[in-house]
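[agent] plan:
  1. take the single chain provided in the ticket
  2. run structure prediction with default settings
  3. attach structure tokens to the ticket
  4. add a short note for the reviewer (M.T.)
[agent] executing step 1
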Amino acid sequence: MVYFSKLATAVAAACLATTAIAHPGEHHDHAAIKREIVARNQMASAARRSIDSCSSSLKHRELSARSIARRAETLHSIRNARGIKSKPQKYRRDLATLETYEAVDHNETGLVDYTVGSSDTTIFSANTSCILTPEVTDGPYYVTGELIRKNVTEGQAGIPLYLEVQYLDINTCLGVPSLYVDIWNCNATGVYSGINVTGNVADGGWDSTFLRGIQSTDDDGVVAFETIFPGHYEGRAIHTHLLVHDNVTVLANSTMQGGAVTHIGQLFWPETLRSAVEATYPYSTNTQAVTSNAEDMWSIVQAENDYDPFPEFVYLGESIEDGLLAWIQVGVNVTADYSDDDYYQVAAVLQADGGHETSDSVGGGSAPSGAMPSGAMPSGAVPSGF
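[agent] step 2 finished; step 3 output follows
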């Protein structure tokens, strides 16, 4: 028997965590954050009305069919490449609990029995009524000048994560091609690359690039990254950063520059998954305090049924250590440009001679106590896939 299920939409409200201190170096005006949350939810509501009007169109249904087939093929390909023979599993958050209150300590994972012959449509579909992840701060430690590459791991130890993100135009429900998507997250012990300040001392300092990279969306609006599940640091729930550029110039050294900032967002992960990951090494060496989704300063569970910040995911095998395949759809306004937004800040710039701090880089706090897994600098060539 194979076990599957679906991550449901977070629909209940939670209080803003006014005591969150966030990563050392990540400082926020909580009154401004509260205003941003209100604006975010208003945008989500308007965007959902727009996307609801086109989600039943023939072209969108055809796009959805291609997406299902692609995710199924990706799962099979990764499992074959890595020699995983055990049956995959897909987990479910308890929807009734979420609808009552997204208090994650009450959140229980149910397993839905599923047969091997079950349709890929059921397993690999996405919730097209709640696909929106509205703009949120780009967060700490955004670095420009990173390589265009799919595999960003650079030898970092952790749970392998194959992450697919599909960007849809909120007015047409169709994929948006030729967007350039930055991804970055901290490593298993809560340290970001490319930054070398008190509170975040990366192995390689300003020159380090692990768990950072850029990919361009295909004709269906899809990018995919090979990374690891992020670790945690005090003051923020576990998250993955995504930032989208449009109309960029691609350079000969596999980097890009310019363009509008079309979308700023963060993906979040359910507590049950975090607990399973952090029971493994080297996550288990991270001694920083854990911040739950309910405690996060950005009130990610205050979704009001208009967006879902949690990707759907499948265990590649029976064990979490076999890795994860995760996917999410994100609705974007292709005319937007957040380049002048207060929360779009560049902490460092990676150039030919290495990384350089900018005036937006911030410091303070104490260094994480968990040991950071080592990672070699990239050669400039795009690493191979899983």
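[agent] step 4 note for reviewer: Confidence is low (pLDDT under 50) at residues 1-22, 92-118, 127-134, 361-386.
[agent] ticket updated
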